[in-house]
Specification:
mainly alpha; about 80% helix; binds protoporphyrin IX containing FE
Amino acid sequence: MHDTLIDAHHGLAVTAVLFTAFWVLIVLGAPRRPVRLGRLGRPVFTGAMMSTGAAGITGLLLLASGKWLTMAFPWVGVAAVTGYGMAGAHSRRSLRSGQKASAGFAAVVQLLLLAAAFALMEAKPF
Ligand code: HEM
């Protein structure tokens, strides 16, 4: 059961990074005027937010199993997922209102938060 949860958490984390990288490309490739998310942007944005949320939920379940409660890195994960949600909402809103630089910055922040969480959780240094 525990191994299945770790596999799910790992798979969701990889999925979230891939969706988010794709989202960054979409935002950076968007024109400098207000745009709707469209047929590609909408599923990619939704996929990125949902897979990150699901990685967070499976992470909390792993934490609830008790083995990692004395370590700090899972709580950094909680902070990363929270920051990701805020940056995600910001990137989508900015894209819709044509503020491309702001949207691009927020999307890159999303990707960096995930990459940092990923590296931290593989290493489990604290
Ligand atoms: C609420 C947020 C999160 C919590 C509480 C959390 C918690 C955990 C815990 C407790 C482990 C250790 C599992 C084990 O080896 O028994 C773990 C592993 C891991 N987490 Fe998270 N996590 C969270 C979010 C994330 C995010 C956002 C990512 C990356 C996008 C991520 C990527 C990983 C990876 C790559 C591992 C290593 C899995 C392995 O050893 O195969 N986690 N996480």
